[in-house]
Amino acid sequence: MSEATIELDSNTTAATAKCSNVNNNNSARSSRVGSASSGADTDADGQRFGWCGWNPPWLQRFCTAKWALFWLCWGGALQGLIVNGLINVSISTIERRFGLRSRQMGLVASGYDLASFACLVPVTYYGGRRGASKPRFIAIGLIVMGMGSLVFLLPNFLVGNYRATIAEANVCESTGVASNSSQSMIACELNEMGEGQGENLTWTVWLFLAAQLLHGAGASPLFTLGVTYIDENVSKKMSSVYLGIYYTMATVGPAIGYVFGGQLLLIYTDWMTVDPVQLSLTSDSKVWIGAWWLGFIFAAAMCLLIAVPIFGYPKLLPGAEKLQLERVSEAHANISETDDSNKVVRGLPRAVLSLLANPTFFFLNLAGATEGLVIAGFAAFLPKQIENQFSISPMYSALVMGLITVPAGGGGTFLGGYLVKKWNLACRGIIKMCLLSTTVAALFTICFLVSCPNPKFAGVTTGYKMEAGSDSPVLVASCNSNCGCSRTNYDPICGVDGVMYYSPCYAGCAQEEHADNLKRYHNCSCIEHVGWVDEGSPSSEATHFRPDATNRKCDSTCQTLPLFVVLCFILMVFTFLATMPALSATLRCVQDDQRSFALGLQWIKVRLLGTIPAPLIFGALIDESCILWQESCDKDAGGACLVYDNFYISRYMWLLALICKLGSVIFFACAWWFYVPPSKPSNANGKEDVN
């Protein structure tokens, strides 16, 4: 920064001598005149689109702000598709596939923000310096993000095929002597001798974490340098619209990831080597694992493709210098009205102190942290909560999230940027808009109180044969006590009584048959006998037993999902309505030459106080809501949760959302209260801005 300062001072000496009695806003403007006039003398080739000196005339049609926005939008959408879409929609599937807990997946989700936290200072400091190529930083970041996607899918190929069920029939075989615990030991010994399910796969969490670190490092330039690159290459009035489009695409990315990733979960994870029909498995089965890893191959390829055109953009687009001349600073008056702050900040420590002395910037950062906490936490675990709360499949849960996120998140983000432009809001008015929208959003956190009663699970949430259940899970009852069942063989079935059972053995089923891609079970001592039912087609002459149970998931009778979707939709609209205005307020309340670094510093605070601890907090509370854990032969392997308590999981989520939203309201109010606008700020036409 010191070299840039010397150059700036030499270019502005004459201007300063003539304008010593002018206010600080015009002084800041004169410094831009000096830098712009210096840039005007540079070679025109420095503002041409191309690669390695190859910039033919026909390519220059792409060297505009609109085309730059187009490619940056794809980069932002890919970041959302990967980190907030494909990964989040696969969390519950990955937990069941590798026996991981929500705490562990919370650590994985936090890895993205940990890497961003470590990379933001050097990326924004060096990428924001004069002469640095922001597009080059962004393109290299996309390549790194693509590498992260390739690493994320590695665990699927480093472990053996997934065994959804054991090879032999998991039915009740009366032993009369062996206890259930001894049967579990025998099952573990058999697993050790063969390709058992008892293998400890918790080491895969470190590969997932490494992939997320690459994702975070690669995405760090997108929403810092990318934002400032757009802002400095368009007019002040159009900046909000361009940034609104950019952030809208970043919001649409997760929605595409939810829908795309959800559809991939309908494909069996080992579809290349295993036919699920032979296992009598369908996507309705509780032990079904979808092809969660397929989407990351597509994402990695797209990252590499999008990086190519972004590499070709110049440091500044043609006409950017003229736009900078027309800008007027709206920086907080306590900073803009001191002589030192009108100069380029000398060195990193002084830059940090300068920004921390700005109270508006400080409280906007805190508001961003509380908003980031709630958004990051629910982005990671809301699909899982919907899946378990309303007893729907991961695919359907992903579809619901996508349907909410596309219109609510994308529409709210774009509407926020549009309203700032339409109402021509100055910094104070923008902060007031954020305050009002966040207040409304806080009211609609009641959506998380909409819940369903716990699904009936024999021995866990209800007793066997509809008897009253105990406080702690008791899977052994008089109807299965002599079956010698093993807790390591989790193979849930749905009885005709609408109750889920841990396995056919724990349901006391003596017979298993395969038909119509299903496993059907008969003579189940723990399920009330139903009797004879004709299941044949009109041309069939055979009469069959109606099975006592099948290996499908019981249908939920809860009808509150539509109400939850409506309330959550409104919550998301007003949440994302404040994101673009809050960004605009952050950019306007600091000096122009501090914008890149200010965004980097803000994102560090947001990540350190919000998005890094968020998945850890949410994951821990979700684990606290678990009432039945998967049992593994390896005592150190942990295991995924099999049954959650819907009452506690909904209350935990509501309290977290409400506390974070109330914190945002307080911080936006403080930012609005402490903001001191420059004396009579005016726009390029000489009119006062609306505040």
UniProtKB/TrEMBL annotation:
Localization (cell): Cell membrane
Q: How does it sit in the membrane?
A: Multi-pass membrane protein
Q: Does the keyword Disulfide bond apply?
A: yes
- Domain Kazal-like, by residue range, is 473-528
Chief location: membrane
Q: Which terms in the GO cellular component ontology are assigned?
A: basolateral plasma membrane
What are the residue boundaries of the Major facilitator superfamily (MFS) profile domain, all occurrences included?
A: 68-675
Q: Which UniProt keywords apply?
A: Cell membrane, Disulfide bond, Ion transport, Membrane, Transmembrane, Transmembrane helix, Transport
Gene3D superfamilies reported for this sequence: 3.30.60.30, MFS general substrate transporter like domains (1.20.1250.20)
PANTHER family recorded for this chain? ORGANIC ANION TRANSPORTER, SOLUTE CARRIER ORGANIC ANION TRANSPORTER FAMILY MEMBER 4A1
| Protein family membership | Belongs to the organo anion transporter (TC 2.A.60) family.
Task: Spell out the protein name for this chain.
Answer: Solute carrier organic anion transporter family member
Q: State the organism of origin.
A: Drosophila yakuba (Fruit fly)
